Amino acid sequence: MGFLDLLVVALVPILKVLLVTGVGLFLGIEKINLLGPEARDYLNKIVFYVLSPCLLFSNLAETITYKSLVTLWFMPLNVLLTFLVGSALGWILAKLTKTPRHLQGIVIGCCSTGNLGNLLLIVFPDICDESNSPFSKLSTCSTDAEAYASLSMAVGAIFTWAYAYPLVSSYVIKNTEHSSIQSSEPSPDSCTEPLLSPSDSQISEDNSVVLELPLTNMQDGKKMSFKEKIAGCIKCITSKIDLEKVFVPSTVASIAGLIIGIVSPFRKVLIADNAPLRVINSSAALIGHAAIPSMTLIMGANLLKGLQRSEMSLVVILGVVAVRNICLPLLGIGVVQGAHHLGVVGSDALYRFVLMFQYAVPPAINVGTMTQLFKSGQGETSVILLWSYSVASISLTLWSTLYMSLVSNSSTK
């Protein structure tokens, strides 16, 4: 199959995403104001608490079984790798560009957290429907694509709130504490004694643990070993995890959907054609169908904020765009092709395409949701998202074309 044919196949679903996003952006314009700040807030809550959980529950329960979950074991590991490498590259970028402390978390969050949700649910089934698609000959292409996209969305939601959220929040909290300490610090001639003793000023019960690891042990003054530093880093990150944020409605729905899908008795009661409680799943699916267009419209309306001025420098924005649109997609080729060579991911070309595609997606809109929770850095996040999604409209098309060419050529050998 020629490069031009694959380019058309990759372009069609991206154009669909752009059109729906453009409608959302148009509805968010101040003169139209159908998706203004208040309307977006209400619609976002409906998506967060109702539509997205229903979509995940119904899709996972229908498409994921115990057998398929065992086959797809590499996908959660693959998604975790995108988060780990992305956050490492984001941290390096923030340090090289000397990004202000309170904005470093945003940079790391945008580099580590990709849009593994509604974007995949739009793109993959459309690629299967294209007649020139290398996957169109597969009789189960649409079903498999929906299963892959649903599992990717579920795993992405769990890692976003269990890993990225505490990582991003640590920088915001540290900056807040630093500001409060500076504002409450007495002048040199007002008193001569510190308010807290050195032992009390390290960590209190109400203060958050700083993620920066010390080079020495405070108790005996000895230099810490590498293992102690790693253990301290893991302890700091886990101490930041807020279970209320981890077990958001989407996470709970994902777990429930997976349980019903892989446990045969539950599946027979809720999913089978003659299941006595099949109306529950069909109702959830009916509600969930509204999630994809709603999320995409909100995404378009939220990008309007990116047209405003912000503290984020152009160098940092270009760096995030480079990480998400060049570095990670190239890494995806190496990881997936290496895993295929070792026999880890099998011979399913569509599955390998999905695994590669997970590296090429733009930052997740949930990073903007995090900044809304923190009430800090919303404008800077919107600027990064605007530029990232603008570039991704081109890069995703090109990377998708290359990925399809790679998996189709390797599958014919």
Automatic annotation (TrEMBL):
<dbReference type="InterPro" id="IPR045033">
    <property type="entry name" value="PILS1/3/4/5/7"/>
</dbReference>
<feature type="transmembrane region" description="Helical">
    <location>
        <begin position="316"/>
        <end position="337"/>
    </location>
</feature>
<feature type="transmembrane region" description="Helical">
    <location>
        <begin position="73"/>
        <end position="94"/>
    </location>
</feature>
<feature type="transmembrane region" description="Helical">
    <location>
        <begin position="286"/>
        <end position="304"/>
    </location>
</feature>
<dbReference type="GO" id="GO:0009734">
    <property type="term" value="P:auxin-activated signaling pathway"/>
</dbReference>
<dbReference type="GO" id="GO:0005789">
    <property type="term" value="C:endoplasmic reticulum membrane"/>
</dbReference>
<protein>
    <recommendedName>
        <fullName>Protein PIN-LIKES 3-like</fullName>
    </recommendedName>
</protein>
<keyword id="KW-0812">Transmembrane</keyword>
<feature type="transmembrane region" description="Helical">
    <location>
        <begin position="42"/>
        <end position="61"/>
    </location>
</feature>
<keyword id="KW-0927">Auxin signaling pathway</keyword>
<feature type="transmembrane region" description="Helical">
    <location>
        <begin position="349"/>
        <end position="371"/>
    </location>
</feature>
<dbReference type="GO" id="GO:0080162">
    <property type="term" value="P:endoplasmic reticulum to cytosol auxin transport"/>
</dbReference>
<keyword id="KW-0256">Endoplasmic reticulum</keyword>
<feature type="region of interest" description="Disordered">
    <location>
        <begin position="180"/>
        <end position="203"/>
    </location>
</feature>
<feature type="transmembrane region" description="Helical">
    <location>
        <begin position="383"/>
        <end position="406"/>
    </location>
</feature>
<feature type="transmembrane region" description="Helical">
    <location>
        <begin position="106"/>
        <end position="127"/>
    </location>
</feature>
<dbReference type="Pfam" id="PF03547">
    <property type="entry name" value="Mem_trans"/>
</dbReference>
<keyword id="KW-0813">Transport</keyword>
<keyword id="KW-1133">Transmembrane helix</keyword>
<comment type="similarity">
    <text>Belongs to the auxin efflux carrier (TC 2.A.69.2) family.</text>
</comment>
<feature type="transmembrane region" description="Helical">
    <location>
        <begin position="246"/>
        <end position="266"/>
    </location>
</feature>
<feature type="compositionally biased region" description="Low complexity">
    <location>
        <begin position="180"/>
        <end position="190"/>
    </location>
</feature>
<feature type="transmembrane region" description="Helical">
    <location>
        <begin position="147"/>
        <end position="168"/>
    </location>
</feature>
<feature type="transmembrane region" description="Helical">
    <location>
        <begin position="6"/>
        <end position="30"/>
    </location>
</feature>
<keyword id="KW-0472">Membrane</keyword>
<comment type="function">
    <text>Involved in cellular auxin homeostasis by regulating auxin metabolism. Regulates intracellular auxin accumulation at the endoplasmic reticulum and thus auxin availability for nuclear auxin signaling.</text>
</comment>
<dbReference type="InterPro" id="IPR004776">
    <property type="entry name" value="Mem_transp_PIN-like"/>
</dbReference>
